[in-house]
Amino acid sequence: MCQKSVITGVVLMAAMMMCLTFSIAAENNVQKQKGQPTSETIVYHPPQPDCGKRIGGDVRGLVRGLVRGLVRGTEEKLPALKLLVPDHTGLTTQDQPVLYWHLSDPTSKRLEFTLNDEKAQKTVFELTLPSDKKGICSLKLADHKVRLSPDTEYSWFISMIVNPDMPSGDMAAGGYIRHVAPPASLAGQLEKSEKTEIPAIYAREGMWYDALATLSQLIEASPQDEALKAQRQDLLKQVGIDL
Description:
Elements: H1 2-33, E1 61-62, E2 65-68, E3 75-78, E4 81-83, E5 90-92, E6 98-103, E7 110-117, E8 122-129, E9 135-140, E10 153-161, E11 171-179, H2 186-191, H3 198-204, H4 208-221, H5 226-237
Parallel strand pairs: 5-11
Antiparallel strand pairs: 1-4, 2-3, 4-6, 6-9, 7-8, 7-10, 10-11
Helix pairs in contact: 3-4, 4-5
């Protein structure tokens, strides 16, 4: 009798586990149909070491500090500026990618964007950026008709002009980017995937800028979606960026 009870209990437990599995799968399917993200984790696979140089020191971000203003006796607290880039050359399949950075607070200091062709050793584009907004900001190269040449190393910097009369005191954060041909397997994966799955695919294929851009665009379309924001935070932490 006792053995029958044990067997019955095991059968009931197995049935409950099976129902729970089906329930989770059904919920994930509903989320996909609604265009909502599932619990899939985004994992960034960096390109091979020979795909690009690492940035020396911590050039990617500016540490918050104090600087004396032009008017005697005044001080202005500088905000923290971080480019949302890895510590190696990030890849993109786009010739007009979107570039992202984070500003902890608005500032009266001027922000200058510079894009350099590392092979030709020349500046190809410069722009003054708005500095009155905090949080994650972006620059669409397409808005300025700027295109990246294939397989060319570019560096990009945002400089904070601390004192216009002393250029040597400017502070800068920088990163590297390279436009490459998409991997052979990428097109097929993208065609079969939901929009919410695309960032993870790009990340898995080592396309940093594409993964961040597609995920950020999903967030812009659904700004109240905390799951998407958590995914972006997780992606950034994988390259040592903590906002």
